[in-house]
Automatic annotation (TrEMBL):
It is found in: Cell membrane. InterPro entries: MetI-like, MetI-like_sf. CDD domains: TM_PBP2. This is ABC transporter permease. SUPFAM superfamilies: MetI-like.
């Protein structure tokens, strides 16, 4: 066993012991508890990178199969303008615009479905059918309809995010108890007063659950859609092109940027959820 492998395994053992010690602590100070909650996954992530580096170098794995993290980092630092252009094309245009349109349309349609039993019986089964369609079947059609630029990728994102928002919002609108709805009727509250003051707040966890699910679906859909036609920019375009050129370090650099963007996007939605639904037992912890 060479030095790189031994060092990686030693680091893994030490990090494991440190995390075991941290998770067994029970500090009373909220600030210290928060630091521990952040430190444990951070140590775990760093450990994975160190073990990855040590094993790849120790076993002399060809970089065309799996480059070490240090090589990927060098590629990220040396390709910032290209990575930024790809990020702007895929995330800031296709993902965010498609996400806003898909989630917004799904939410408004859920309100209409809630008002119409006909739509509830006719549209929701259709939604289950469309949500099961594979991306590789939708993406080429959207490229033919909307062209090769980012609008076709945004259209794929709209299709992928519309029905999760629709189904979750419809379920959330039924989450309020019958007693609460009866109480609103005794106050002679209208449908819209009941909707905004009772049913939508009760549906908040369901709506944010859809928003969090869609934050990852949107990025996946936009990247996969770029495989089927795009200008010479974009995360999906770069991944497919660099794989053909055997520049696997650039592929992993794009994957790292996509993973970071998706994680931050999910985290922002989760923080907004905590601020908006602070009253819910799932947020208060009981």
């Amino acid at each position: 066993m060479n030095f790189a492998i031994a060092g990686a395994l030693f680091f893994w053992a030490g990090a494991w012991a440190l995390n075991e010690w941290l998770v067994r602590l029970d500090p009373r100070a909220p600030g210290l508890r928060r630091i521990i909650d952040l430190a444990v996954p951070a140590i775990f992530g760093i450990t994975l990178l160190v073990v990855w580096e040590g094993l790849v170098r120790g076993f002399n794995v060809p970089t065309v199969l799996l480059p070490p993290p240090s090589m990927i980092w060098e590629r990220i630092v040396g390709s910032l303008p290209t990575l930024w252009a790809d990020f702007r094309q895929t995330f800031l245009k296709a993902v965010l615009i498609g996400y806003a349109l898909g989630c917004g349309a799904g939410f408004l349609t859920a309100i209409a479905v809630d008002r119409s039993p006909f739509l509830q019986r006719g549209l929701l089964p259709l939604g289950n059918f469309v949500s099961a369609l594979p991306i590789i079947g939708i993406a080429p059609i959207m490229v033919m309809w909307f062209g090769f630029d980012w609008p076709s990728k945004a259209a794929v994102v709209v299709v992928m995010t519309f029905f999760p928002m629709l189904v979750n919002t419809v379920a959330g609108l039924s989450a309020s108890s019958a007693i609460d709805r009866d109480l609103m009727r005794t106050y002679a509250a209208s449908y819209w007063q009941t909707l905004f003051k009772l049913r939508l707040p009760a549906a908040g966890p369901f709506i944010f659950n859809a928003l969090k699910i869609n934050s990852t679906l949107a990025l996946i859909g936009a990247i996969v859609a770029e495989f089927f036609g795009t200008p010479i920019v974009g995360m999906g375009f770069r991944i497919s092109t660099e794989v053909g050129r055997m520049n696997i370090d650039m592929v992993w650099a794009e994957i790292a940027v996509a993973a970071l963007a998706g994680s931050l996007f999910y985290g922002i939605v989760a923080l907004v959820e905590r601020a908006v639904t602070f009253w819910h037992p799932s947020i208060r912890g009981g």
